C-alpha cells in the first residue's frame, strides 16, 4: 500500500541492493512532471517520425493519383506530407487547403531551345537530366524536412529513381515506388525499342526500382510483369475516384454551363451546330444555358440539347486523337445518309431548326476535350478545318474543382489512351465511373480489368467502330436511348462500389506502415 501511494505521487527508483542492505527509496521529481516530460519526448518522436515526401517529376496539378496519395497520407496515416514537384496547374483545393500538406515547387529546365545552334541540342539533352538530378537532390536533401518515407511516381524513371534513392540513403528514409507505367516504354515511342538509350533507361529503371523498400502498381498485369521479369514484388492499388467525383445535380450542371458559356459560344471562332445555337445564351437569356433552363418550378434539361461527350487527353503520341476526329466525321455522314439529307442542304437551315426545338432521331454531339499537351495546337487546327453538320468540338482546361462537375454532367466519356507497355490503366476512366459516366475506350491488353463491355462501357479498335457505337448509344437521345441508360447504370454501380480512401486503407496504408516500421528497426 505504501509503495502504491508513493508511486502515485512521486517517481522513485530502487537503489542497488547488496547483501545485508535494505531497499532504499529516493525521492525525485513529482510523477506528473515526469509524465509531462515523457509526453513531450513522445510528441517529439511522433513529430520526427510522422512525415512523408511525395515526389513527382512533373506538374502536380496534372498528377491526380499523387495528389490523392498526399491526401490519404495526411488524412488516413496522420502524417505531415511534403510534395516535391513542378508547378503549372493548380492542385485540387482539398490538397492546397490541407494544413498537413506542404507543396515545394521546383524550377524547371527551360522548355524552349529557340535560337540555339543545332549542334548544341545533344549537349542540352545531356544537361537536362543532370539539372533535374541535382535539383531533386537539393530539394529532397536540403529544402524539405527529413521524411520517414519517400513515395515516388514512376515514370519518369531517370533521374527520379536515382535521385530519390541517393536522398533516401543520406536521410535514412525508406522508399516506395508507385509504378504507373514503365518509363522505358514511353521513351521507346519516340526513339524505338531497339535504341541504346532505351536499353540503358530500362536498366536504370529496373535496378533502381529493385532497390526500393516497397512498391505499388496500378494493375494485376503490371504486378505479374514486375515479379516475374523484374524481380520486384508490388502491391496492386487500383485507381479509385475520391469523394469529389460524383454525378452532378441539376443545379450544379446549370451553374457549370453558365461558367463555361464563353468557351461554348465561340470555340476558336468556329461556326458550328453548337455555337450557332448559343448566340445570346447566357447574356440575353439569363435563365438558360445550352443544356439547361430555369423555370418557376426549378431547373430542367432541354429536350433539344446536344449530347455531351467528354474526353480528357494529354495530347501525346500514346493517344491517337485523330481516331476521334475520324469517328466524328463518320457519325456526321452516316446520320445524314440515314435521314436522307442532301449534302447540298445549307447547314444554317438545319441548325436553326435544331435551335427552334426540332428533334431528330440522332442528336447533335458536342465533344469537350480537356487537357494540356504538345499536340493540342496541331489537332485544334484540324478541328477548324472540319465542316460538320451535327458535331462540334471545344477544347479547354478546367480547374480541379470544375473537372469532376463536367464529368458528372456529361452523357458519355471517350478514352483514347493506349498504354505504351500494355500494363497500365487510364485513370480518366476511373474518374468517369466515379461520376456515373459510361465510357467508350480504345481496346488494349488489360483494359478489361476496368471496362466491362456492355456493363459500364464499350471498347473499340478503330474509328469506324467508335462511330458505330455513337450511333447505337445516341439513337433516340435524350429519352429513348436505352443502351446508353443501361451503361450509365453500370457505371454508377462501378463508381459507387469502391472509393480511393477505401482502396488506399486496405492496400497502400499497410505497405507504407510496414516500410516505415522496418526502416526504423
TrEMBL record:
The cellular location(s) given in this protein's UniProt record come to: Endoplasmic reticulum membrane
Give the UniProt entry's GO cellular component terms: endoplasmic reticulum; endoplasmic reticulum membrane
User: What GO molecular function annotation could you give as one example from this UniProt entry?
Assistant: mannosyltransferase activity
Q: What pathway or pathways are given for this protein in its record? A: Protein modification; protein glycosylation
* Gene3D superfamilies in alphabetical order: Glycogen Phosphorylase B
Instruction: Respond yes or no to whether keyword Transmembrane helix is given for this record.
Output: yes
- The residue ranges of the Glycosyltransferase subfamily 4-like N-terminal domain are 75-234
**Membrane topology term:** Single-pass membrane protein
Q: Give the record's keywords alphabetically.
A: Endoplasmic reticulum, Glycosyltransferase, Membrane, Transferase, Transmembrane, Transmembrane helix
Q: What is this protein called?
A: UDP-glycosyltransferase TURAN isoform X1
Amino acid at each position: 500500500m505504501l509503495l502504491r501511494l508513493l508511486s502515485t505521487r512521486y517517481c522513485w527508483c530502487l537503489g542497488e541492493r547488496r547483501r545485508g542492505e535494505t531497499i532504499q527509496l529516493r525521492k525525485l521529481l513529482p510523477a506528473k512532471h515526469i509524465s509531462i516530460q515523457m509526453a513531450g519526448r513522445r510528441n517529439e518522436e511522433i513529430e520526427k517520425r510522422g512525415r512523408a515526401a511525395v515526389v513527382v517529376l512533373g506538374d502536380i496539378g496534372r498528377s491526380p493519383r499523387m495528389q490523392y496519395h498526399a491526401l490519404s497520407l495526411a488524412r488516413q496515416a496522420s502524417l505531415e506530407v511534403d510534395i516535391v514537384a513542378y508547378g503549372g496547374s493548380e492542385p485540387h483545393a482539398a490538397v492546397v487547403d490541407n494544413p498537413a500538406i506542404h507543396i515545394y515547387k521546383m524550377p524547371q529546365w527551360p522548355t524552349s531551345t529557340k535560337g540555339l545552334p543545332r549542334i548544341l541540342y545533344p549537349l542540352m539533352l545531356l544537361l537536362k537530366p543532370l539539372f533535374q538530378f541535382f535539383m531533386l537532390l537539393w530539394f529532397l536533401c536540403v529544402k524539405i524536412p527529413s521524411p520517414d518515407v519517400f513515395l515516388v511516381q514512376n515514370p519518369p524513371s531517370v533521374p527520379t529513381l536515382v535521385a530519390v534513392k541517393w536522398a533516401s540513403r543520406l536521410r535514412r528514409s525508406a522508399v516506395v515506388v508507385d509504378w504507373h507505367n514503365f518509363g522505358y516504354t514511353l521513351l521507346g515511342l519516340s526513339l524505338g525499342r531497339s535504341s541504346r538509350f532505351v536499353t540503358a533507361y530500362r536498366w536504370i529503371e529496373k535496378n533502381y526500382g529493385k532497390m526500393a523498400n516497397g512498391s505499388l502498381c496500378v494493375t494485376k498485369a503490371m504486378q505479374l510483369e514486375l515479379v516475374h521479369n523484374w524481380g520486384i514484388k508490388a502491391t496492386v492499388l487500383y485507381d479509385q475516384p475520391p469523394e469529389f467525383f460524383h454525378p452532378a445535380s441539376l443545379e450544379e450542371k446549370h451553374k457549370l454551363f453558365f461558367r463555361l458559356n464563353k468557351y461554348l459560344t465561340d470555340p476558336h471562332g468556329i461556326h458550328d451546330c453548337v455555337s450557332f445555337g448559343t448566340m445570346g445564351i447566357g447574356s440575353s437569356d439569363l435563365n438558360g444555358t445550352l443544356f439547361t433552363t430555369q423555370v418557376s418550378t426549378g431547373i430542367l434539361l432541354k429536350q433539344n440539347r446536344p449530347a455531351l461527350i467528354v474526353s480528357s487527353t494529354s495530347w501525346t503520341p500514346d493517344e491517337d486523337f485523330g481516331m476521334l476526329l475520324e469517328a466524328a466525321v463518320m457519325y456526321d455522314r452516316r446520320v445524314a445518309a440515314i435521314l436522307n439529307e442532301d449534302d447540298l442542304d445549307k447547314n444554317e437551315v438545319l441548325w436553326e431548326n435544331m435551335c427552334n426545338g426540332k428533334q431528330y432521331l440522332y442528336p447533335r454531339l458536342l465533344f469537350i476535350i480537356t487537357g494540356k499537351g504538345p499536340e493540342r495546337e496541331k489537332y485544334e487546327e484540324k478541328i477548324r478545318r472540319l465542316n460538320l453538320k451535327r458535331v462540334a468540338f471545344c477544347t479547354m482546361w478546367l480547374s480541379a474543382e470544375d473537372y469532376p462537375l463536367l464529368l458528372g454532367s456529361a452523357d458519355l466519356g471517350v478514352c483514347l489512351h493506349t498504354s505504351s507497355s500494355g500494363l497500365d490503366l487510364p485513370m480518366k476512366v476511373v474518374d468517369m465511373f466515379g461520376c456515373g459516366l459510361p465510357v467508350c475506350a480504345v481496346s488494349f491488353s488489360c483494359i478489361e480489368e476496368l471496362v466491362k463491355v456492355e456493363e459500364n462501357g464499350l471498347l473499340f479498335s478503330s474509328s469506324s467502330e467508335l462511330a458505330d457505337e455513337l450511333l447505337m448509344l445516341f439513337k433516340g437521345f435524350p429519352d429513348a436511348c436505352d443502351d446508353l441508360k443501361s451503361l450509365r447504370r453500370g457505371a454508377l454501380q462501378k463508381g459507387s462500389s469502391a472509393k480511393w480512401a477505401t482502396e488506399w486503407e486496405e492496400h497502400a496504408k499497410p505497405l507504407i506502415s510496414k516500410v516505415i516500421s522496418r526502416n526504423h528497426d
